């Protein structure tokens, strides 16, 4: 075969492999055709759902304000319950505590931040300082003697295991606890001065007697007198006081019709018998 024949055969093979059909003449894919058939004519495409809430500001971290960065650093130190290095606190809170001198001075001057110059560690000054159940009970006793209880939330901030320890002390009869009515969470704790013994009392009332007590209903005012009389009792009455006076019907500004006789006190006794001083003086006319 000549050189010309070889080139012609190669050219024909290339023409056979080439696709000259237009892009708009290609049939649509099966997936797209099914979506177009399923969607009604004239309907708009649905936008993909997004979890972004545009009404809320985005969380930009600790920000650039010194006071905002100070709040972040103090709150993180409060949640650790352990002393921390300044470098670790700066890394965990993404704040320039170790480079910004203004922020560092405010951080050291905070009334809840304790700095140990020997170890160069920072810790949070909690309202209470205890780390075990015995010290917790001592603190509760001290506050109860002052005339009040302690909020459980404040104890939990000082020691995260405080709620569990308080429940153990309540079961042992050492403390008294008030709870929320909605979910029964611990609210206030008091020291139980009366230990639960059979001699001195203080034992927890059994649930059966509590149910019987709450089932009792006080009758209304009408039926109360009947219930008392049926039991041979009598209702107490208040001591009778003076009868209230009625409103006065006397009208001011009007005098009675009867004339009052006014008594005249005579002081000039040496004129007695000669001149009647109880009468008005009328001069006599000359004759």
From TrEMBL:
Descriptive protein name: Transcription initiation factor IIE subunit beta
Matches recorded under InterPro entries: TFA2_Winged_2, TFIIE-bsu, TFIIE_bsu_DNA-bd
Composition bias type Polar residues, residue spans: 18-28
Quaternary structure and interacting proteins, as annotated: Tetramer of two alpha and two beta chains.
Low complexity biased stretches: 236-247
Localisation: Nucleus
Bias-annotated ranges (Basic residues): 248-257
GO biological process: transcription initiation at RNA polymerase II promoter
Tree of life domain: Eukaryota
GO molecular function: DNA binding; TFIIH-class transcription factor complex binding
Family membership: Belongs to the TFIIE beta subunit family.
Pfam short name (any one): TFIIE_beta
Assigned GO CC terms: transcription factor TFIIE complex
Alphabetical UniProt keywords: DNA-binding, Nucleus, Transcription, Transcription regulation
Region spans: Disordered: 18-60, 236-263
Domain spans labelled TFIIE beta: 54-131
General function of this protein: Recruits TFIIH to the initiation complex and stimulates the RNA polymerase II C-terminal domain kinase and DNA-dependent ATPase activities of TFIIH. Both TFIIH and TFIIE are required for promoter clearance by RNA polymerase.
